[in-house]
Amino acid sequence: MTASARTTGQLIWDLPLRVFHWLLASAVLGAWITHRIGTRAFGWHRWFGYACLVLVTFRVLWGCIGPRYARFTNFLRGPAAAWRYARDWLSPRAVAHLGHNPLGGWMVMVLLALVAAEGVTGLFANDEIFNAGPLYGYVADATSDRLSSWHRVLADALWYAIGLHLLAIAAYLAWRRENLLGPMITGRKSGAWISADAGIASSRVLLALMLAAASALALYILIATAPEPSLILF
What we know:
globular, 9 helices, two-stranded antiparallel ribbon, 234 residues, Fumarate Reductase Cytochrome B subunit, mainly alpha, 64% helix
């Protein structure tokens, strides 16, 4: 690899993946803020929830047919690989990864699963006053109440996972001098150890837009065809 290539870096994270990352972070934060505001912001809370579901659906599809480093097959490894990576993390034999490392890959899946579960339970949940999710009409009141409880429990679990994720980013920067946030903004990683053919050739933006539109349309149809929820009085 030439000195110029080492300086500019190789394109590793495609543009749709980077946009997804920051939009999902914004949507989760927005959902939390509107929840804290209370019932008067329920409409906005619902829209942030929709955004989370569309984004997670897109990410699952992108993990199957997106560019190399976005694919689940590129970074999902078994427990043994995750354990070896954790064991060697501070040792000289630690292996660097262009995409997600084995532990980071499983953190991605945990975060996606939690956001998805939080969004799905929210579709059926209610606030025991006046507001209910758009699919409330499909389930009995007792079922909605149970899903509402799970919605709250999953929200706590999600924030614990996000906290662990942020701690890991800080640890990489402090102990391994590895900036994980920069490449998620620029998409590029540089270094003498990165081969000349390591980067991706294209971000496949048009395909990503089509998948995002399809995800949004599917959620719209699901919500638009749902029975109208009964008014909750107390």
